[in-house]
Amino acid sequence: MSNIKNIAVLGNGGREHAIAWKLAQELGQDAIFTLPGNAGIPNSHAIDISDFGAVRSFCLTHDIQWIFVGPEQALADGIVDYFQDSNIQVLGPDAASAKLESSKILSKEFMLRHGVTTASFIKFNCIKDGQAFIQSLNESFVIKLDGLAGGKGVFVCDTPKEGLEALDELQKKYGENISFLVEDKIIGDEISIIGFTDGLHIQLLQPSQDHKQLLDGDNGPNTGGMGAYCPVPFWNNKLADDIQEQIIQPTLQGIQKEAMNYRGIIYFGIMISDAGPFLLEYNVRLGDPEAEVLLPSLKSSLVELMEATLTKQLDSIQLEFEEGYFVDIVLASGGYPGSYPVGLPIDIKAMPSDILLFSAGVTKKNNHLATNGGRVINLVSHGQSFDQAIRKAYANIKNISFPQMYFRKDIGLRKNQFLKNYS
Ligand code: GLY
């Protein structure tokens, strides 16, 4: 084990709470500083993480040697490059490699160059050309804005009319001359395969599944994620092998061939279709809410995993996972992902010791926990069977309340038709 003393976790959501929680199990709470964190994360400090100078000063003052970056923006903005020649090591890709997430077009071109299985696409640099193309389509398609858009740059369209409306929305927000792509819509079950890479190897965490839409049955608007679970019950060797062969190994070879400076997390958003797995997107960070189930399910040391990534020795690690299943239900503010009130008091009663709570949109008001965001708290359960984990999670929601609390009633109950049929 390394002689690392202190680690800073950057970010303010449930994902960052889960990262800080796991690291604190190993190094002690006083060694893990979350910037800016939130009122539910111990040892949170109100530092603006877009100000890399302020992050650096904080790290120097608190004898912090490593930084674990939660959200993508700091990576896209070059936090790894900023700390490149310092004694502070940052887990993540440099800004050029972070384009795998921050530019949908460069990312698709990377997939094509390296033979990663993905939907075919056409790129556009102005709305007018895209409109003409979309009018000629008679199959479903997806429009993706090129840059980071906080989850609001992707439109799944079943008709040209829907596509034209999406382009109108993009034009109003960003103007006529914007870069975007239009790709075939792949029908199937979506899973998240997330791992650590040191640029030479990839070590995968458990396969997981997010629930992106607001309403039961995967209906309603997209959100940041309303719940997750791991591992995926219908996982099998054939699927794992196909994903390795068609997506993960070509990606790793691409990272090596292009000599990318990448020591961090790589997230494969994959659609399992009748024709096998297709890569929808890369992310360069842990998923949220996937992290809230993946980190409790990781039996191995996260500190050692981080160290092996930073020292490019991931091949020396054999990851171990807890038995059974983990389920996360997101408790959200009524109105989310639209507008919602904040500052509402949160009441938390005693919970069984194996229920974990990871806070996201929370603050302190008159010394009492209060809502402060759309996704407020993640409730995470562990069960030996998948059904048991789901039942346990739902049985404990009664111990948390705040006015207008909303949650999906069907986390983990999705049919997963394509996964189920995969053989
Ligand atoms: N759970 C989806 C994401 O983190 O992007």
Structure commentary:
The protein is α+β, with helices and mostly antiparallel strands and 423 residues long. It folds into 4 domains: 7-96, 3-Layer(aba) Sandwich (Rossmann fold), CATH 3.40.50.20; 120-184, 2-Layer Sandwich (Dna Ligase, domain 1); 189-323, D-amino Acid Aminotransferase, Chain A, domain 1 (2-Layer Sandwich); 325-406, Phosphoribosylglycinamide synthetase, C-terminal domain (Glycinamide Ribonucleotide Synthetase, Chain A, domain 4). Helices cover 30% and strands 28% of the residues. The protein contains 13 helices and 24 strands. It has helices at 14-27, 52-61, 72-76, 79-82, 99-102, 104-113, 127-135, 160-174, 237-257, 290-297, 302-310, 386-396, 417-421, and strands spanning 7-11, 32-36, 66-69, 89-93, 121-124, 141-145, 154-157, 180-184, 189-197, 202-204, 209-210, 213-215, 219-222, 227-230, 262-273, 276-283, 325-333, 347-348, 356-359, 362-365, 368-371, 375-383, 400-401, 405-406. Strands 1, 2, 3, 4, 9, 10, 15 and 16 form an 8-stranded mixed β-sheet that branches. Helix 1 (14-27) links the parallel strand 1 (7-11) and strand 2. The mean pLDDT is 96. The structure holds glycine.
Question: Main attributes?
Answer:
423 residues, Rossmann fold, Dna Ligase, domain 1, D-amino Acid Aminotransferase, Chain A, domain 1, 30% helix
